[in-house]
């Protein structure tokens, strides 16, 4: 059962403090770590509670180095390691996964946080011919997670996928994930497809890994002012009421924004809370298991999850048994 004291206002620090016994000695890998982002903030909070190692992954080395410095400023003794990871390229994901696999001094990964993502970007294909949001937000993480699986299983670890209430923008288009080669492309629908996939991926992992002691969750972090929406034109954000006419956050936006510390709280709850160990596959919002309030039916169910797994195997070019 989720902690009843947690909610919208709960901070990452409060969650980490409540579950601080779950952090010492753990090896934690976080994707999408960059300055001022949710991944970096998540890492900083965890770093203050004596993890064995934080592995910080991102496409850009300079972002990783800047985030590493941010962590060192708040937790000078925290051990960190950097990993270049381009989730938009299957070949690059394989390189990164093989690199982690070669680290003999990292025999297990206790927590994997699949945090990286892009949002509502213009039409583009990945190097592998996959719509870019689906490629980066789901397919890359699908393959990367599987490449790390031996080390996750060794730890009986946890996997956390950052999804979004934005999964309600659209389901996975199992027969047309590329939007008729872009001719029917809608950036928000593609974002919804990718975020729905993050939820279904966690459902599959939970079912497939139950006997191995590994748990998996997906989370809605909340609406947070980060660089995630950098590809969305200002006029679109204004039309949606997110920005005002001057380009600033709209105080009368259709939803209430969270701070970075509130926005990373649910991720940390999913990664640490021992009270949800029996709810593997669940979708969390506001640090609690969601029971359908913001969880669309198309992102639920083992049938949909299995269809996504089969499609994902097809797109990476091989069966991936766990």
UniProtKB/TrEMBL annotation:
Molecular-function GO term, any one: oxidoreductase activity
Origin superkingdom: Eukaryota
Signal peptide: none
Coiled-coil annotated spans: none
Keywords attached to this entry: Oxidoreductase
Family listed: Belongs to the short-chain dehydrogenases/reductases (SDR) family.
PANTHER family, per database record: RETINOL DEHYDROGENASE, RETINOL DEHYDROGENASE 11
Name of the protein in question: NAD(P)-binding protein
Biological source species: Polyplosphaeria fusca
Lineage, highest ranks first: Eukaryota, Fungi, Dikarya, Ascomycota, Pezizomycotina
């Amino acid at each position: 059962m989720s902690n009843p004291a947690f909610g919208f206002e709960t901070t990452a620090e409060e969650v980490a403090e409540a579950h601080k016994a779950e952090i010492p000695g753990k090896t934690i890998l976080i994707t999408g770590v960059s300055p001022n982002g949710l991944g970096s903030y998540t890492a900083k909070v965890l770093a203050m509670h004596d993890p064995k190692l934080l592995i910080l992954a991102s496409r850009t080395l300079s972002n990783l180095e800047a985030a590493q410095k941010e962590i060192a400023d708040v937790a000078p003794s925290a051990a960190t390691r950097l990993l270049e990871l381009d989730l938009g390229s299957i070949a690059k994901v394989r390189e990164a996964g093989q690199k982690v696999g070669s680290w003999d001094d990292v025999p297990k990964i206790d927590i994997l946080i699949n945090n990286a993502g892009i949002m509502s970007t213009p039409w583009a294909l990945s190097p592998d011919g996959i719509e870019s949001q689906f490629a980066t937000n789901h397919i890359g993480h699908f393959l990367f997670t599987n490449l790390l699986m031996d080390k996750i299983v060794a730890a009986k670890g946890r996997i956390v996928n950052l999804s979004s209430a934005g999964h309600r923008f659209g389901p996975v288009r199992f027969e047309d994930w590329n939007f008729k080669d872009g001719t029917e492309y809608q950036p928000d629908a593609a974002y919804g497809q990718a975020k729905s996939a993050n939820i279904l991926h966690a459902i599959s992992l939970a079912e497939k890994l139950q006997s191995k002691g590994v748990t998996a969750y997906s989370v809605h972090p909340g609406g947070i002012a980060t660089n995630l929406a950098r590809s969305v034109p200002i006029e679109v954000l204004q039309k949606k009421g997110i920005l005002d006419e001057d380009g600033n956050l709209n105080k009368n936006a259709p939803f209430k924004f969270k701070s970075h510390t509130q926005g990373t709280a649910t991720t940390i709850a999913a990664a640490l809370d021992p009270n949800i160990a029996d709810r593997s596959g669940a979708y969390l919002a506001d640090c609690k298991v969601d029971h359908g309030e913001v969880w669309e039916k198309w992102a639920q169910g083992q049938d949909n999850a299995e269809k996504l797994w089969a499609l994902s195997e097809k797109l990476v070019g091989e069966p991936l048994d766990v």
